[in-house]
Amino acid sequence: MNQHMLSQAGNPQTQANTSSRHSETGYPKDVPQDFLLPPPGRRYVRSFLFSRHVNAPFARVHLLARTLLALCLSAALLRTINTSHPDLVGAAVLWSGAVLILALSGVSPGVARLYFLLTLPALLALFITWIVFNPVPGKVTLLKLPIYSGQLVIGLVTWQAILLVIVAGYFLWTRKLFLGIVVGIVVAFAFEQWVHLPELRIAQVVFFHPLTLLVSDQGLLVAVTKTIGYAGMIIVSIALVMTARDAELIGVLRQLRCPQAVIFFLSTVFRSLDLALSDYETIRQAQITRAIAARPRSFIRRLRDLASIAVPLVAIMIRRSGEIGDALLARGYTPGRPMADFYESSPWHLIDWGVAVLCLLLLYFALGPHPAVMTLLWRGV
User: Fold this and answer.
1) Within a 10 A sphere around the Cβ of 90, how many other Cβ atoms?
2) Which of 188, 213, 322, 359 could form a disulfide with 163 if both were Cys (CB 3.0 to 4.6 A apart)?
3) How many CB atoms lie within 10 A of CB 179?
4) In the prediction, which pLDDT does 155 show?
5) Measured between alpha carbons, how far is 18 from 7 in angstroms, rounded to an integer?
6) How far apart are CA 199 and CA 154, in angstroms?
7) Do the strands 141-148 and 51-53 form a parallel or antiparallel pair, or are they unpaired?
8) Closest CA to 51 of 108, 113, 118, 109
């Protein structure tokens, strides 16, 4: 074998073919160019956040087409959540499309449940905000309750003492605060509403304007439509981020002919983020190995645990930056020297053209002079 290799190395024809291959492509033919393909046997691959399945259907679409689809779907959802003309049916249909995209993105069920739990408080707060602070009159009034008279009363009332006693007692008993605050607020509100308690008024100041909780059929329609629309935008954004990889983004930037300095900077940033996530998992597993989660810990202690990770994580990131710099120097990188293009660029397939047509339809739905889907259905009935 060694003699065969030496004969090939000494053959002028072989050297000429090799040099021609180098001159045509800029790099040897034996360099693998399938950077987007994971190693054989791997089921999941890391994305910008967490990981996704290797054979996810939505991940097979070109990253540029995926991004356009997310933007166009968000624009169509913004059209449906117009306050003056809410389109509940259109928002529900587009929300179903966003859920379908998330289901096709290859996200594990545990990660999907985690994101659902994280976004549920925000959506609930959005719904309550539109109900309380944006009263919309309608044909039918479901609830009308004054909640603020427009004046601030400075003084001492009995329910404040009840709240403090419950919170302090619960803290002394369990060394926790959250549940005690919740129970104290509920009990104090019940006493304030249904039990006449003595109070001492010191001063009374006019502040803001009176607020009345007005829930009508139109206001409820607007609040529900807003919540569904924003939920759809959050879901499609999560699907886009969960399926995108740094190698795909670099390939898209190369196809768009972005400057080499911009591409190198972004690739370094994304690679550093990926390394920071891996280092965080290592430090967290080391804490768990040292029995940091052996006992139930309060929310404040958990925040302290996260803060304690910052010191070793910053130290590792500083060391990583030095290692990246040494690796660049070892590979002969200089700012003024052109680099060989080893980035993966995905071709544009037929499914990408189909997604582009769908984006045009969504843009027409978002910007076109057509009535809402709910109005069309109402006219048909």
Assistant:
1) 24
2) 188
3) 11
4) 77
5) 14
6) 10
7) unpaired
8) 108
CA distance 183 to 186: 5
| pLDDT (tens digit per residue) in 326-376 | 877 777 776 666 666 555 667 788 888 999 999 999 998 888 887 676 666
Confidence of residue 21 (pLDDT cuts 50, 70, 90): very low
Q: Is the pLDDT of residue 13 over 60?
A: no
Instruction: Give the separation between CA 85 and CA 225, rounded to whole angstroms.
Output: 10
Bridge partners, residue 53, by sequence: 44
What proportion of the chain, given as a percentage, has pLDDT over 70? 79
For 208: left if phi > 0, alpha if psi spans -120 to 50, otherwise beta; the answer is left
Compute the distance between CA of residue 60 and CA of residue 39 in angstroms, rounded to an integer: 17
CA-nearest of 274, 249, 250, 239 to 57 is 239
Q: Give the pLDDT confidence of 143-187 residue by residue, as tens digits.
A: 777 777 788 878 778 878 888 889 899 888 888 888 888 888 888
Helix (H) or strand (E) holding 148: strand 141-148
CB 250 within 8 A of CB 266: yes
Under 8 Å between Cβ of 231 and 95: yes
First to last CA, the chain: 82
**SS3 of 196, please?**
coil
Strands (DSSP E) contained in 60-134 are none
Query: Alpha helix locations (H) across 299-349?
Result: 299-330
Length of the chain: 381
Q: Write out pLDDT tens, residues 231-262.
A: 999 999 988 888 887 778 888 888 888 887 78
Contact call for residues 88 and 228 (beta carbons, < 8 A): yes
Instruction: Tell me how far the alpha carbon of residue 105 is from its chain's centroid.
Output: 14
pLDDT score, position 288: 78
What Cα–Cα distance (Å) separates residue 181 from each residue in 89, 157, 176, 278, 312?
39, 18, 9, 37, 34
> Mind listing the pLDDT tens digit for each residue in 113-128?
878 888 888 888 888 8
Provide the Cα torsion 146, 147, 153, 158; round to 10°. Answer: 110
Q: Find how far residue 294's CA is from the centre of its chain.
A: 31
Contact 139, 218 (CB under 8 A): yes
CA–CA distance, 36 with 30 (Å, rounded to integer):
17
pLDDT at 340: 60
